[in-house]
């Protein structure tokens, strides 16, 4: 099975008939949109918010009790509505309901950062999701870089976010609780 990078995925948008496209954005414009969303998602994640990328999933942080109760680690939960329609995907809503500080992706902020209109951003996101769905249905494994945050890997049986060590280290520096040697007994 072949593996597609982000540029390969977005090239599919040019092959989709105009009647099934939501926007008239070129591949480079969709790539700019993806990168802007990745940067915005990373900013929210580092401020302990849980952004929900519509159709993709929720990015959130939680305490990593396995390593140390003072540490936080990033996590990803795929959107059940989008991925349950494929071959062997099944993701329940149990994690989604327990995520604190969950906020939807704000198209208006992304639009103002890019100098686009809000409807252009929303239609661009729909085109990206159409490309992802088309690729997965054709059996292509996807490896989508999300800025410096990490890589989103989508196969026919699994959706996984591989966070970069950079974001994990930033979380450790930013939110690690100081250990003053005080213990409760």
Provide key terms for this protein:
four-stranded mixed beta sheet; globular; 7 helices
Q: How helical, in percent, are the residues? A: 40-55%
Strand adjacency order, main sheet: 1-6-7-8
Mean pLDDT: 77
Structural class: alpha/beta
**Low-pLDDT segments:** 180-185
Largest sheet: 4 strands, mixed
Approximately what portion of the residues adopt beta-strand conformation? Answer: 15-25%
How many extended strands?
A: 8
Number of contiguous helices? 7
Q: Secondary-structure element order, as H and E?
A: EHHEEEHHEHHEEEH
Shape: globular
Alpha-carbon distance between the termini?
Answer: 55 Å
Task: Give the radius of gyration.
Answer: 18 Å
Summarize, please:
Helix content is 42%, strand content 21%. It has helices at 6-15, 27-46, 80-83, 94-97, 107-114, 118-137, 165-175; strands at 3-4, 50-53, 57-63, 72-78, 102-104, 141-145, 150-154, 159-163.
